[in-house]
Amino acid sequence: MLLEDFSEPRLIQVIKNICPEGPGIIIGIGDDAAVLALEPGSRIVATSDMLVEGIHFDRNFISAYQLGWKSLAVNLSDVAAMGGTPRFALVSLGLTENTELHFVEDFYYGFKRIGEQFTTYLCGGDTVKSPSGIIVSVTVLGSIEAGKILTRSGARPGDLVAVTGVLGSSAAGLALFQKGILGRFSPEVEEELKKAHLEPLPRVREGQILLARDIATAANDISDGLAVEVREIAAASEVGAIIYGNKIPISKATVTVARFLGEDPLQWALGGGEDYELVFTFPPEKMGVLKELKIPVTIIGEIKEKEFGVFVDIDGKMCNLEGYGYDHFKKKNQ
Questions:
Q1: What is the number of structural domains in the chain?
Q2: Which domain range does residue 26 map to?
Q3: Apex 131 CA angle, 130 and 136, nearest 5
Q4: Segment 27-84, tens digit of pLDDT
Q5: Is 153 domain-assigned?
Q6: Is the same domain home to 265 and 179?
Q7: pTM here?
Q8: Please, which residues have CB within 8 angstroms of residue 110's CB and are 6 or more apart in sequence?
């Protein structure tokens, strides 16, 4: 059934049936606004992201379920970078009139699935007709203890720079689709990289630990590429930084695909984006605490004085990080 044959009230009821009200939602979907409850002594963490068909996703490569998953994941990652606890989500969809009803249903099933993993529940949103292409806008509201907030602006000279997980995997997954090379690699390699690109798992728990244990001085989620996020921390903290290219963690699967295509996996790690890992800074004396927590972390650099600048050391060559990463309004992104 197409949406043009379906009324908006009936569509809202379908969404409510898929995503029932969760804890803390006093009034949810169906009224003019949601009414929500937060813990005493907490502050609200709010973030919003948009995904536009043809810019951020291609329906030839991503299912409705995966789009629902990813649209929430990118927002959860922002909350993770601040050490917060995601609680509620609002979704606004711009849908073409020939969109199938099952597409919308599958979108919300994917959205609900990752939301359940991070106890984040749909509480409202909007649906409108789009003249061309699907548009997804998601807002996530979370909570954080008053006076304890992790930002980009706390890095200090002498701090170490670290990342969670591995980088470049999402770019490698995207390359599998765009280059038409699916089926050329082992099922394990392809599944790992497709998951990284289409169904990322944000580091919410890790962000909460970094904040609760007073480990990190600054943090950022890696959405536009490691280079961009390090530059943002350096700018906000008014410091410089050096990243060591040979220290950046890259999976064997990513290296395998990069070599097949004649690409440099390090470039994917620096500028590919959409890894949704965390990059953070911390003082060396916190190293012991970090190791005890057994978080998947790799130290990749250190913070310098502002006059040093922001560079990556690639085989002994100092390269300015200014040229790497995704920018929404550049004519061509690296």
A1: 2
A2: 3-145
A3: 30
A4: 777 766 678 887 888 889 999 999 999 989 999 999 999 999 999 999 999 999 999 9
A5: no
A6: yes
A7: 0.90
A8: 63, 64, 65, 66, 67, 68, 69, 70
